[in-house]
Amino acid sequence: MSQSPKHVAVAGATGAVGIEILRCLEQRNFPVGKLTLLASARSVGKTLTFRGEEVEVRELTPDSFSGVDIALFSAGGGISKTFATHAVEAGAVVIDNSSAFRMEESVPLVIPEINGEDARSHQGIIANPNCTTIVSLMALHPMHRAFGGVRQIIASSYQAVSGSGAQGIAELEEQVEALARGEQCPAGSVYPKQIAFNVIPQVDSFLENGYTKEEMKMHHEGRKILHAPELTASVTCVRVPVYRSHAVSVTASFADAPSVERAREAIGAAPGVRVVDDPTADPPVFPTPLDCTDGDDCLVGRIRRDLVLENALTFWAVGDQVRKGAALNAVQIAELL
């Protein structure tokens, strides 16, 4: 695909990730020659601003992709399964943010800084990984290369309510405001328990093995992205009362003995990720979700030798899951094309 202006379609344009995709396209000066915004029937007639002009939202239908070069999907797995093939048949390359195609053997699962070459093998669809997987692997990949390959991962994620969409943010706000007024916390519809001033160790539905679907994504997706079929990951995903940006605590064991100093060097030399780590400073330096919100880079701190596993390091990674965990990564894949 050449660098001439492209006809770009965004399916799910009015959602949080769709709007962020437009921001990324504009900020990164992507060669958009024509822009088609697609959403459900209830959004038809709305307008979104792109490069100073108002673009009207059209209804997503099987016939929406005539002449489209790149279709960025961010409307949920069901929508992707229904409409992605229509886009491909019309000649577009689909970059899909949902989980619909991630584990299909013929579909590349791509983080451009890690396995961008995989995008070249696409057959019309390229998948965006899960947001927590992206944040974790952006931090882990430089160490994976430096220490002979990662073998095992034990991780706990601390996931912002925006991962549940606008309704997750609204539920947190409603509960916090009610409690601040001294009122009883209103029952929520998004989360199974109160999210205000609480943490919920369930993100997604449970599987027979006791893990959730979200927790198994890092295990399966990590193997595919890193080309590491022997990798195992034990993950606990936790929803926390933070509006935006995910954090992940990771312990990873490697084939070779790692060092904290070499890990910092490897991360510091890698694109899209930065070390924010100085426990000797006053106050100590480490990254938090607020530090990376609206930013492109993932941040890594609290790097230390693990005291339990052999050849292992423990670290803390944060990243904006709406941006690098979804919209930015999709636009970067489009840039690879």
Describe the model.
The protein has helices at residues 16-27, 77-89, 112-115, 131-146, 166-180, 213-226, 260-268, 289-292, 323-336; strands at residues 6-11, 32-39, 47-50, 53-59, 70-73, 93-96, 125-127, 150-159, 232-239, 246-254, 273-275, 298-305, 312-319. The protein is α/β, with parallel strands linked by helices and 337 residues long. Helix 4 packs parallel to helix 6 (213-226).
What is the strand and helix layout of this fold?
Layout: E1 6-11, H1 16-27, E2 32-39, E3 47-50, E4 53-59, E5 70-73, H2 77-89, E6 93-96, H3 112-115, E7 125-127, H4 131-146, E8 150-159, H5 166-180, H6 213-226, E9 232-239, E10 246-254, H7 260-268, E11 273-275, H8 289-292, E12 298-305, E13 312-319, H9 323-336
Parallel strand pairs: 1-2, 1-5, 2-4, 5-6, 6-7, 8-9, 11-12
Antiparallel strand pairs: 3-4, 8-10, 10-13, 12-13
Helix pairs in contact: 1-9, 4-6, 4-7
Task: Please tell me the overall pLDDT.
Answer: 96
Number of strands: 13
Q: How many independent structural domains?
A: 2
Distance between the ends? 6 Å
Q: What are the defining features of this structure?
A:
single chain; about 325 residues; alpha/beta; Rossmann fold; Dihydrodipicolinate Reductase, domain 2; 2 domains; seven-stranded mixed beta sheet; six-stranded mixed beta sheet; 13 strands; about 30% helix; about 25% strand
